[in-house]
Amino acid sequence: MDISTLYESRIPTVPATATLAMAARVMGREGVVAVGLAEEGQIVGLLTQDDLGVAAAAGTDPIEALAIDWIPTTLIGATPDESPSSVTRRMRALRLHHLQVIDGGRIIGVVSLDDLDHGRVLFGEETGRLARGVARAPEALVRVSMYDEKAHAI
Fold first, then answer.
1. Of 14, 30, 42, 132, which is most buried with the most CB atoms under 10 A?
2. pTM
3. Distance CA 154, CA 152 (A)
4. Rounded to the nearest 5°, which phi and psi values hold at 63?
5. What would the pLDDT profile of 28-42 be if each residue is shown by its tens digit?
6. Which residues pair with 39 in a beta bridge?
């Protein structure tokens, strides 16, 4: 199993020249926790809610500060063919909740720890443990089903 079916490919974007306030407004309007920063039609970086929190803690004025100044300068990501386990380990080691999915040097999506954990439970490595847990506590399946309609296939 790889992460190709687990990441979100629809990433709302803002211009790379957007302020933190503009990026936050788009996140709120779109109901997402990250936006892509775009230059010439390409996403050049990903700004997350965590980045907004770091900027706020530093006392940054979100109306004046540019979003691009608050994203990592090193492109850290995963490729669609990586396993959920390896990506999860990397994200936990780097203390990241969201990670860019990169293909051919381009950012094509974003994956979260929640996506990876959920996908591993439903479609792969931990399915046996889930089935044993459901046998002991059937309400566990109901909670999973409410999270994602794919759970109905179990």
1. 14
2. 0.68
3. 5
4. -80, -25
5. 999 988 899 999 988
6. 42
